[in-house]
């Protein structure tokens, strides 16, 4: 299990400015690329070379022209970067930044599950450890899970059994979209699962004309799809999106005003508001904050670049096998 994180004190504007200068100077000195996930605190996002969703970050990590990658995200993301670029030094500013979803399935559990379904194709969310990836046929992220599963049915036949994990809400969403049953693991992300149908009901009453941007890991996603199916919410106002997809929505709607209810981790608001300042982005649940993502701070990023500390290295015996499902995913899109 990931240890309980402690919340870092907020920085003043002057501290942020001085630390950002230090970080950028160290990145130049180390020939380092700073990658940050959309859930990072705003000042870390602003100091990064690239901010994105899991798929975008994997792509950048695979195609990097730097000696060092400083990964501002959680441990499995840095591990994925190291698998894709094993010759690079991959650093994470806090090695204890874990993920409750990645912790929800162990290699022993996956092996036992696979033994129950011989011949099944194993599809795992990228939010998993390297050991799990090494037992997986295809990885997915929230932005391409439907596409990857459709690809598997097209390639292996429509009756192919699929073991899908570890997120049960994403699994339920994919089942609805592809119109077929999968064997779905019952893991969840405590942050997204905590965004409940009641939050959506309250938000609909408060903002009747708002669009909904829903991350498929959310505990409200099934309910929202049911509202749409029942005609209670207009189909065109509901968007099931990865964090990168939400940013595309913001770019497309810049200058159009209006309100959008965002159901995902609240760090996402920073990029959305920068991309479309005239759109009123409202969090479906303001308590949806990932403590692990928030363990990464500017002082820790500065320290890891200065000391080359927090290196994430994957056992070379695992790298080759764990790379297969990630590369298959990146190739599909
Ligand atoms: P995406 O950025 O790929 O949508 O992933 C969300 C997430 O929860 C990562 O931990
Ligand atoms: Fe893991 Fe959830 Fe945090 Fe994403 S938001 S890193 S899935 S615990």
What attributes does this structure have?
Rossmann fold; 14% strand; binds 1,3-dihydroxyacetonephosphate; 333 residues; 4-stranded parallel sheet; binds iron/sulfur cluster; alpha/beta; 12 strands; globular
Concise synopsis of the structure shown:
The chain has 333 residues and is an alpha/beta fold. Helices cover 45% and strands 14% of the residues. It has helices spanning 13-30, 42-47, 54-62, 75-84, 107-116, 130-133, 145-156, 168-178, 190-193, 197-206, 221-229, 243-253, 268-275, 298-307, 316-332; strands at 32-37, 50-52, 68-72, 89-91, 121-125, 138-140, 162-165, 183-184, 211-214, 238-240, 259-263, 280-283.
Strand content: 5-15%
Number of distinct helices: 15
What CATH calls the topology of the largest domain is: Rossmann fold
- Characterize the overall form: globular
The second-level CATH architecture of the largest domain is 3-Layer(aba) Sandwich
**Helix/sheet category:** alpha/beta
N-to-C span: 31 Å
Which ligands accompany this protein?
1,3-dihydroxyacetonephosphate, iron/sulfur cluster
Strand order of the largest sheet: 2-1-3-4
Low-confidence stretches: none
CATH class assignment of the largest domain: Alpha Beta
Helical proportion? 40-55%
Q: SSE order in H/E notation?
A: HEHEHEHEHEHEHEHEHHEHEHEHEHH
Rg from Cα = 20 Å
Write the CATH homologous superfamily of the largest domain.
NadA-like
- What's the total count of β strands? 12
């Amino acid at each position: 299990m990931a240890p309980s994180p402690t919340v870092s004190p907020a920085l003043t504007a002057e501290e942020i400015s001085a630390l950002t200068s230090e970080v950028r100077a160290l990145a130049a000195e180390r020939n380092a690329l700073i990658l940050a996930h959309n859930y990072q605190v705003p000042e870390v996002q602003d100091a990064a070379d690239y901010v994105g969703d899991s798929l975008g970050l994997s792509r950048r990590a695979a195609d990097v022209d730097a000696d060092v990658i400083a990964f501002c995200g959680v441990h499995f993301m840095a591990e994925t970067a190291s698998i894709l670029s094993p010759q690079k030094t991959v650093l994470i500013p806090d090695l204890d930044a874990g993920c409750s979803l990645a912790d929800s399935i162990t290699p022993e559990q996956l092996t036992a599950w696979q033994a129950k379904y011989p011949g099944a194709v194993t599809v795992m969310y990228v939010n998993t450890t390297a050991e799990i990836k090494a037992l997986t046929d295809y990885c997915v992220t929230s932005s391409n899970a439907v596409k990857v599963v459709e690809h598997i049915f097209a390639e292996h036949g429509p009756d192919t059994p699929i073991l899908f994990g570890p997120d049960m809400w994403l699994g339920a969403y994919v089942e609805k979209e592809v119109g077929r049953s999968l064997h779905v693991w019952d893991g969840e992300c405590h942050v997204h699962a905590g965004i409940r149908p009641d939050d959506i009901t309250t938000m609909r009453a408060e903002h009747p004309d708002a669009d909904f941007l829903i991350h498929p890991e959310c505990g409200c996603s099934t309910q929202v799809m049911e509202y749409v199916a029942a005609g209670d919410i207009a189909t065109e106002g509901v968007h099931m999106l990865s964090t990168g997809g939400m940013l595309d929505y913001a770019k497309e709607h810049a200058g159009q005003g209006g309100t959008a209810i965002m159901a995902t981790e609240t760090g996402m608001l920073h990029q959305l508001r920068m991309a479309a300042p005239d759109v009123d982005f409202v969090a479906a649940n303001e308590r949806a904050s990932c403590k692990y993502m928030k363990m990464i701070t500017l002082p820790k990023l500065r320290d890891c670049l200065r000391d080359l500390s927090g290196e994430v290295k994957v056992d070379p015996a695992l790298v080759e096998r764990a790379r297969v499902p990630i590369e298959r995913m990146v190739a599909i899109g």
